[in-house]
Write a structure and sequence with these properties.
Blueprint lengths: L1 H32 L1 E2 L3 H27 L2 H27 L15 H12 L6 E2 L7 H5 L6 H22 L5 H20 L11
Antiparallel strand pairs: 1-2
Length: about 210
C-alpha cells in the first residue's frame, strides 16, 4: 500500500516537473526567437491594432487639453475603449506566442499595406511562424502629436476604419479563439466608428 502511494506521488511529481519544464521552454522560445502560433493575417492584426491603440491613447489624452466639445467627448470614449482593449490584446497575443506589442510598421500605415507587408514577413503562414521585430522611431509617433483640433475627429474616423477592417478580417481567421475575440469587440468598434462620422459601407483604407 505504501509502495503504491509512493509510486503515485512520484508519477504526479514527474508530470508536474515536465509540465513546468515545457512551459518554461515555451516562454524562452517566445522571448528569444519570437516564434508565434498565428498566421500572417493574425500577426498583422496584432501589429497594426497594437500600434493604433498605443498612438490612439496618446492622441486621446492630448485632445482633452485643447479640443472642442465633440473632440473631447470622442477622445474620452476612445480612451476608455482602448484602455480596456489593450490588456485583452496582450493576453490573447501571449496565449498564441505573439510578443506583444509588436514593433514595426507605423500605426498610420494603411491596413492593406500592413497586411501585405506582415503576411510576407510571416510567410509561409503556418501554425509556427517566426518573425523578427523592428524598432519604431519617436518621430513616427510624433507625426500627429500636434495635429489641428479640427483634424482629430477625421483622423480618428480613419483610425477606426482601419481597426474595423482588421477586426472584420480576424472574424474570418481559421483560429476559432481569434474569431471569438474579434466578434466580441467588433460591435463596439463599429459604434465608435459611427460616432466619429464613419459610414457602414465605407471601408476605405487609410
Amino acid at each position: 500500500m505504501k509502495f503504491n502511494t509512493l509510486f503515485v506521488a512520484a508519477v504526479c511529481a514527474s508530470t508536474l516537473l515536465n509540465s513546468c519544464a515545457q512551459k518554461t521552454a515555451e516562454e524562452r522560445q517566445l522571448k528569444y526567437t519570437h516564434t508565434s502560433l498565428v498566421d500572417g493575417d493574425a500577426y498583422a492584426f496584432f501589429q497594426i491594432v497594437g500600434e493604433h491603440v498605443a498612438t490612439g491613447l496618446v492622441h486621446a489624452d492630448q485632445i482633452q487639453n485643447d479640443g472642442d466639445v465633440k473632440a473631447k467627448e470622442l477622445g474620452a470614449k476612445l480612451k476608455d475603449f482602448y484602455t480596456q482593449l489593450d490588456p485583452e490584446l496582450d493576453s490573447i497575443a501571449t496565449a498564441f506566442h505573439v510578443d506583444y506589442p509588436i514593433k514595426g510598421v507605423a500605426a498610420t500605415h494603411s491596413s492593406d499595406e500592413g497586411v501585405t507587408a506582415h503576411a510576407a514577413a510571416a510567410a509561409p503562414s503556418t501554425p509556427d511562424t517566426t518573425v523578427h521585430s523592428a524598432t519604431v522611431t519617436v518621430e513616427q509617433e510624433a507625426q500627429h502629436a500636434h495635429e489641428p483640433v479640427s483634424d482629430y475627429v477625421s483622423h480618428t474616423q480613419h483610425e477606426l476604419a482601419t481597426l474595423k477592417t482588421q477586426f472584420e478580417r480576424l472574424t474570418r481567421n481559421t483560429n476559432k479563439d481569434l474569431q471569438k475575440f474579434a466578434k466580441k469587440h467588433l460591435a463596439a468598434i463599429s459604434d465608435l466608428y459611427a460616432q466619429a462620422g464613419g459610414k457602414e459601407d465605407a471601408h476605405a483604407h487609410h
